[in-house]
Request: fold
Amino acid sequence: MANFKIESGAPITLQELYPSSPFFMEARSLRVTGLLKGYSVETAIGVIEDGEKSLKINTQHLRDVSFRVGSVYQFIGELHIEPNNEAILQARTGRNVDGIDMNLYRKTVELLRQFLEVEDNINMVE
Amino acid sequence: MDRSLQNAHAKLMSRDIHRLTPSPTEANCFSTVGTIISRDMTPMFLKFSVDDGTGCVTCILWLNQLTSPYYNRFNSSTILLHSRTARRQARDIRIGAVARVRGRVGLYREVMQITTTNVIIERDPNAEILHWLECVRLGRSCYRIQG
Reply:
């Protein structure tokens, strides 16, 4: 049985995806959430949006996920950066999260990061 | 951890599960919530991984209730019930779903993994958020002292 290591998708908001961001890296594993604004069945590429920011999602590897424009989806996958600096997430998983509290999600991701950072600092001095 | 919590399932994030030190005396029942990102079925068990945003943890769901000598101590109806439950849970474990996994944590090939006793597929889109918040609260107030 294969025993390869899969990277965890760091939860981020789309506002954090900009060229100088630490998350804006080729092959970076991310978890993104947003409203599906468009979807092409031919290319299996969708566009999610959160506020003013949007991100392309390549869903060609996803099975058993039906896409409905106007619903909220969460994807885990690896970021690919095109030569023109446009990012596209190569999704490994996707799910409909209609009903998610996006404000709570954003605040919790921030709180979680702070908590993990404090834990790391404590472990370093122990 | 507080000894009064020995029989409870401690809620942990994947990153913390990998930082546990295996102990024969301390309780090792844990619960975590994450997105299923891999699934590997064998005749004996289902191996799957959950990603909760802090790390990935491998989980094993045994499916050998009808053949393993371990289950000889139980009567046949109990064995059948365990077997059916495990197979039903295995069927529900699909890539992309969010699962609440409860079980015992142990070291296998130098990596912590969960031998599951119970897997529940979460339908609530806020389930992972709630789990993160609970883990942060318990991490600060219950599991260890932080500044």
